[in-house]
Structure formats: C-alpha cells, structure tokens
Amino acid sequence: MKNVICVEHPLSEHSLTILRDRSTLTADFKQRTQIVTNILFAEATRSLAVKEKTVSTPLTDMTGHIIKDNIILVPVLRAGLAMLFAAQQFVPWATAGFIGLERDEETAIAREYYQKFPEHLSKKKTIILDPMLATGGSLLSTISALYDKGASDIEIICIVAAPEGCELIANHYPDIKIYTAALDSHLNDQKIHCARTGRFRRPVFWYRLNHERLQSPDRGGGRSNSSSLLIHYGRS
Fold first, then answer.
1. Is the four-CA dihedral 24, 27, 206, 151 of positive or negative sign?
2. How confident is the model over 135-175, as pLDDT tens digits?
C-alpha cells in the first residue's frame, strides 16, 4: 500500500518487542511508547517547511533554520495521549486538538463522545496520533471530523497497524500517509491485532483535563457532552 510508510529502525524494533511482551511493566511500557513515537514523529515530519533565521552565537552571527509550518497534534482519546506527550517533546509549541472515540467491542464500530479542535485548521499541518490502527473505523471518523472543520493537510502516526485498517483509509483517503513501526499480518475474528501490544486503553494513568485545558491556545470551536473530561490510558 503506497500510503503506508513502515519506519524500520533498530531502536523502534527493540522497543516494539517490549511493548508486545505481556510481562512488560507499566513504567517500561510508557517509556517504550515514547521512544517509538519519537522515531515515527521524526520520520513523519521530515518534509516540514522551514524558514531562515539569523541568530547571534557567542562568536558571530549565523543563519539557521526554524520550522515554518503550523502544526496541530490530534490524539485519538484515550490511547493517543500516550503518544501526544512524546510528540510534544519535538514541537512543544504545537497546538493540540482532541477527539474521543469509543469502540463497540461487538460491532467494532466507533462512537464519538468528545470533540475539540482549534480554529483555522486549513492553515495547519494536522498529525493524528493513535497507537493501534485495527479496522480503521476510529481513524476514518477522525479524518472526516477534521475535514469537516476545514483541515487540508493530514498525516497519521500509529505504533502498529493492520492491513485491514490501512486499506480502509487508503480507499477513502488515498493521499493521507500512515506512518507505523509495524504492519501486522491481519486481525483476528474479534477485529483485534493477533500480535498486539499491551492494551493502551487500560486505566493506569489518570488525567483530569478540564474544559479550559482541553481547548487550544486559540480556543477553537468544538463540542463536548460535559464540562470536563476524565481521560485515562495505559496497559494491561
């Protein structure tokens, strides 16, 4: 699939093996998630536009380069938060948007329960963060919601992906690139990765994100079904 970029790196392969190990402890799981996310994020942002900037060093002036593109990071709640904190290490100035999707375990269909995006998405490069791309239903809903809000430049970063989900995204949005550390063979009968990682959605870390914190600095529009949102993520 032309839209899937499988990023191969010894460090990500090492960390991904630890993530798949059911005996991995929570602290190690969190650390390895950050490592894989950092490697994927560096590759996904390789084509970011830059502009020249002159700075004064201790000895002389020199011309360097800084990021020109405006970036918005959109983690798919709840699991995507584990990747958001890692991505922000590279671009701490990036705006964050949020969408909450809950998968029905019987039908594998995602239901949206929260959405908060900044304004002026058409002027930003949007990077969706979701650890596991399985059927693709959640990401399809996320992409549709972003386009409805005016987004025009979208990329996806997933730690692991299944061909079923990648194909679904490619059929609907062939121009959107998916960056992943591993493309698994298939989903099982329950629409789950056969060689999956630990469960990112298991409650281990709890964050109380009130209405103000969920809004971006430019306080973009969105909708919520409550005044605050309780978010948690982790592994089994």
1. negative
2. 888 899 999 999 999 999 999 999 999 888 899 999 999 99
Determine if the peptide bond prior to 213 is cis (ω within 30°): no
**Separation between Cα atoms, residue 66 and residue 48, nearest integer Å:** 10
Q: Beta-carbon neighbour count of residue 152 at 10 Å?
A: 12
Cα–Cα distance between 37 and 43 in angstroms, integer? 10
β-strand partners of 114? 100, 224
Q: Where are the alpha helices (DSSP H) in the chain?
A: 10-20, 26-44, 81-87, 137-148, 163-172, 211-214
Confidence of residue 110 (pLDDT cuts 50, 70, 90): confident
What is the bridge-based pairing of β-strands 110-116 and 98-103?
antiparallel
CA distance 128 to 143: 8
pLDDT at 207: 36
- Angle ∠(22,36,84) on CA atoms, nearest 5: 100
Pairing of strands 177-183, 153-161: parallel
User: How many helical (H) and strand (E) elements, i.e. helices and strands, does the chain have?
Assistant: 6, 14
> pTM for this one?
0.79
Comparing CA positions, the residue from 173, 175, 232 lying closest to residue 200 is 232
> Is the CB of residue 84 less than 8 Å from the CB of residue 76?
no
Segment 78-87, tens digit of pLDDT: 889 889 999 9
